[in-house]
Amino acid sequence: QVQLVESGGGLVQAGDSLRLSCAASGRTASNYNMGWFRQDSGKEREFVAAITKSGLSTYYADSVKGRFTVSRDNAKNTVYLQMNSLKPEDTAVYYCAATTIASPYLRQPPFYDYWGQGTQVAVSA
User: Fold this and answer.
1) To the nearest 5 percent, what fractions of the chain are helix, strand and coil?
2) Hey, is 88 helix, strand or coil?
3) Which of 27, 42, 43, 117 is most buried, by CB atoms within 10 Å?
């Protein structure tokens, strides 16, 4: 199995940037497609971004396109989420997740096998 630990969250103002990291252990990160999801208080978990095993393909929710960038460094067993031009509606707990399934399902939480504990991002107006 793989363990995932997110870091890099914090409290920022609208327009600021944050870079989240997801460190994997137990298995090499290259075995997994990776996704980022977020969940604000009282709301459902939603897809943010995903990246395939090789890093050659990425996917984004419409709400973050042009602002967020997902990347990975398999040598470090780490996936990143660069978040720019943050908005108050980006406030949420951000989770990284890992799956071995095919890329057509990477936007859907039920297809991920492993999840981190999350890191809080709060964006003030």
Assistant:
1) 10, 50, 40
2) helix
3) 27
